[in-house]
Amino acid sequence: MPQIRFSETQWVFLLYQFTLRSMDNFAAIDVETANCERSSICSIGLVVVKNRQIEERLYRLVRPCPNYYLLTNIHGISDTDTCCEPEFPEVWAEISCHIAGLTLVAHNSPFDESCLRAAHRIFQMPYPDYVFRCTYNGARRILGDTVPNHRLPTVAAHCGHTLVNRHHALADAEACAAIAMHIFNAPAART
Question: pTM here?
Answer without folding.
Answer: 0.86
